[in-house]
Amino acid sequence: MPTPRPTEIELTARQEVILKQIVRRHTSPQRLVKRATIVLYAAQGQSNSQIAHQMGMVRNTVMLWRERWGKASVGLKALEVEGAEEKALRAAIAGTLSDAPRPGSPGKFSAEQVTQILALACEDPQLSQRPISHWSARELADEAAQRGIVERISPQQVDRFLKSGGFATASQPLLAERQA
Asked: Which residue of 32, 84, 143, 171 has the fewest C-beta atoms within 10 A of its own C-beta?
């Protein structure tokens, strides 16, 4: 069975300039630099094997990014025809060279449940007939399950919710003071 011909890459002048800027810029993430370099070499007519050997990577990786660029090139050219600004074209090219979204397991807790757990942490534990002065992650997890906010939750997960919030009290009063 013959191997399929690699996708031909033709770059516009603007695309080539942006790709070269990505490669030269010291602040560009290395994954984008490698992918931009693959596209630039492919546009020069190099084969997948040549690019892979030159860059020290496997041929399948080169094929993947060459194909992705080939599929996105019509949309990129359309952006240029529409007269898109440099910033928009740069963002589209970076998006083309970025990782595709990966599937993952859905979150186990809804935003509403997280909010209710955080609100619970703001309550006085003694109102829940808890003989403690401050909530611990274990006590919050137990109380959230007891109130039916969640079926069950680990203290570690409650602790992650509390730490990830980035909550801070206001530096100034938020409400206007009442004048007498």
From this structure: 171
Whether the CB-CB separation of 26 and 6 falls below 8 Å is answered with no
Residue 99 token pair: 């990782």
pTM for this one? 0.59
Instruction: At 170, give phi and psi (nearest 5°).
Output: -70, 145
* pLDDT score, position 144: 95
pLDDT digits (tens, 9 = 90+) for 46-79: 999 999 999 999 999 999 999 999 999 999 999 8
**Cα–Cα nearest to 154, from 105, 111, 123, 108:** 108
Residues 8-23, buried b or exposed e (16+ Cβ, 10 A)? Answer: ebebeebbeebbeebb
Dihedral of alpha carbons 168, 169, 171, 173, sign: positive
- Decide if 88 contacts 115 (C-beta within 8 A): no
Closest CA to 121 of 105, 132, 106: 132
pLDDT of residue 171 exceeding 60: no
Alpha-helical (H) ranges within 8-166 are 13-24, 30-43, 48-55, 59-81, 86-97, 111-122, 137-146, 155-164
How far, in Å, CA of 166 to CA of 29, rounded?
A: 27
Instruction: Please report, as a single letter, which amino acid is at residue 124.
Output: D
